[in-house]
Specification:
Elements (H helix, E strand, L loop, with lengths): L11 E11 L12 E15 L2 E6 L3 E4 L6 E3 L5 E10 L24 H17 L4 H51 L6 H7 L4 H12 L3 H16 L7 H7 L5 H12 L3 H15 L1
Helix pairs in contact: 1-2, 5-7
């Protein structure tokens, strides 16, 4: 809904009734050609939707768009107090007619949901007291419930998009860091340097890097260096010490220790195996 259509937003409220269900109540599976909202005020009830039975409890809200099959049953030793509202002839922005576009049926619990329940209890009070202007106030409360519900859904969508865009940014940062390491593995690279370059803290960089790759940035760098070293050992062009320096190790002993940990054999042993293989093939 937007400001351009607010004058035209005048849904038809088909019903709004206070329902108390006791053990043994069991409805038939059905669907509507209009929108129905079921607000669970108290207790718990078994609801069928999305091809599954699910326990729904007080404080939760169900949104049934047209055509969504559902039903409810009340198990032994349980009860439920619900407010059912049927509505048609409305349309929210970018949604089909008479639809909230909530594919999950169950409205995710949010802070604003408390306001919906406040309005629901006010509506029930109107039912019970039946004061003057009952119809007008009741319709106003249903419209507020609709608006607050739509706001909850929009907020959820915005949060999901924000989370996705944040995730995309982090993935992009990680890919840039990996590309940098692959092209500069022979240089002195520290986590502090990588973090400063990409405007995040070293601790947070380590956290998101491990979430994406499964290893820390330094361990990833070590893997790159050792893979490059393995390739260089295939020929006799460089000594072990020169190989170590070429991939960023100043200390040949430290290099050999890391290499053996990664490949299970020392650099010299790997070189011997390459040499033996070359002799055999020639």
């Amino acid at each position: 809904m937007n400001s351009k259509t607010i004058q035209e937003f005048n849904p038809t409220i088909l019903y709004a009734f206070d329902a108390w269900n006791h053990a043994g109540n069991h409805g038939e599976k059905h669907h509507h050609d209009f929108f129905e909202m079921s607000i669970i005020l108290e207790g718990e009830v078994e609801y069928f939707f999305n091809q599954n039975w699910q326990t729904v409890r007080g404080g939760q809200i169900l949104l049934f768009d047209p055509g969504v099959e559902h039903c409810e049953k009340q198990l032994a030793n349980t009860f439920s107090h619900q407010l059912h509202i049927g509505i048609e002839h409305f349309q929210f922005e970018n949604q089909p007619a008479d639809s909230f576009g909530n594919d999950q049926v169950l409205l995710p619990v949010q802070e604003d949901q408390v306001k919906i329940f406040d309005k629901a209890w006010q509506l029930l009070n109107e039912f019970q007291q039946h004061p003057s202007s009952f119809d007008l106030i009741s319709k106003g409360l249903v419209l507020e419930i609709m608006g607050l519900t739509w706001r909850c859904l929009v907020k959820r969508q915005q949060q999901a998009q924000s989370s996705l865009s944040k995730s995309d940014r982090f993935n992009q940062v990680i890919q840039l860091i990996i590309a940098y390491m692959e092209n500069n593995y022979a240089q002195d690279i520290s986590i502090e340097q990588l973090a400063t370059t990409h405007f995040i803290s070293p601790t947070y960089l380590s956290k998101i890097f491990k979430e994406v790759t499964g290893v820390s940035p330094i361990n990833y760098l070590i893997q790159i260096r050792l893979e490059k070293a393995f390739q260089l050992l295939e020929t006799d062009e460089y000594s072990i010490k020169e190989v170590a320096k070429a991939v960023g190790y100043e200390d040949a002993y430290h290099f050999s220790k890391s290499f053996k940990k990664q490949y299970g054999q020392s650099p010299s042993k790997i070189r011997q195996e390459f040499q033996q293989k070359n002799k055999t093939s020639s």
